[in-house]
Fold this protein.
Amino acid sequence: GVETIEREVASLTARLIAWADDAGVEVMTPSESTRRGPLVVLRSVDAVTLVARLAARGVIASSRDEGIRISFHGYNTQEDLDSVIASLEAESAMLKRSRFIQTLGG
């Protein structure tokens, strides 16, 4: 039912945020699950260009100021998330990194 869909969407959202945190990508979405919906906003160095590059890879996102917004819905699967992550990794130069990671990485 609806609760199952809500849990799966929340899980996909949490997994993308966890990936971004592990990769040192700046996440603009609140980390607390009670303060966020079914979307994730990641900070980008050029959100408009990144959205276009992701679209070329089959990933639908939108630009929001300095960020890209990725929304999950009831029809999304783990395979969809894997595709999003692979596309973000391929375009990782377009993502802003946290200051801590930038300092460690040079």
The radius of gyration is 13 Å. The mean pLDDT is 92. The longest helix spans residues 2-23. The longest strand covers residues 39-43.
